[in-house]
What does this fold into?
Amino acid sequence: MSAHSTVLATHGHNPSTGMQRGVQLLPGLALAGALALAAIALGKLDWLQHNGISALTIAIVLGILVGNTAYGRIAPASASGVTFSKQTLLRLGIILYGLRLTFQDIGHVGLAGVLIDALVLSSTFAMSWFLGTRVFGLDRKTAMLIGAGSSICGAAAVMAAEPVVRGHAEQVTVAVSTVVVFGTLAIFLYPVLYHLNEQYHLVAMSPAAYGIFAGSTIHEVAQVVAAGNAISIDAGNTAVIAKMVRVMMLAPFLIVLSAYLSRSEEDGAAHVTPNADDARHKPGRIVIPWFALGFVAVAGLNSLALLPKPVVSTVIDIDTVLLAMAMAALGLTTHVSAIRNAGIKPLALAALLFAWLIGGGLAINAGVASLFS
It folds into this structure.
């Protein structure tokens, strides 16, 4: 038994332990909560909404600002609550994120839309992993986190993948930063490309087809809303549905990734440390990201329409606070120097992925559409 387990066993029956733990968490939770509420308030500003900048993005920026200035003086008292926010609250936030989805969303885009999303996701993530490690010389965790953000749903996917790949705060922040840069660029570039295509008739694309293209290739949900509605309401609605189906793929993606990484670590341990004590290296053990299954379960519950709409709306608001707290906590523990040391390579990889999402994503959309027509 490890020392940590011994401590837990020793104090497991002490009634005051839970209360003491709660008191320890309060300062950090209060700080993360204050930053989250500030980010949500700022996120309601018209200019930020129009440009697809979500409260989650603002939360991590505020966290970085405070983390690299005043946080050092209060870090000892706040550390446990901040850690709790970016770990436990993050998982709870991802689970409740399922209330934004229903399985009926799949029916709205059809099998073609699902196939497009699956092909875009798998090709983009595979490209990020391969090019990030083989061409750009990035560590595997950074490459995977950038790939998750680009291929699924931006910052939320990066945060959801972090417990699976066991990334560091700086690696997560670098990945989120690339999502912000190129997702924001997509908001303005996609409508321009659509209008150019209307003028020169390069490819056949209706507003509905544009919506599926935008939803299957743009990073963040907020960015998809902005880019879709820039064309028409119908294009915006189709884009959001296509995006939500892509978000729904987060859970199976995390489970497959966890299974692969567990097997990979076991293979490495067999050659390097065959007698390791770490339970992660026990043969045949696959670490299941249970929060991903919770995400699917909540989406399934939401699909049954059993919960009153006001309840769903309220819980979604609470979930936004939880996710914003997790992002703020991440920012608090991120050092700008570490991001600076990461250099231009993560941005270059994300730029290449962005080009693939536009060019390759358009090819996948056109190919699947022709197949089903």
Q: What stands out?
A: The two ends are 61 Å apart (CA to CA). The CA atoms of residues 125 and 174 lie 16 Å apart. Confidence is low (pLDDT under 50) at residues 1-12, 273-285. The chain is about 80% helix and 0% strand.
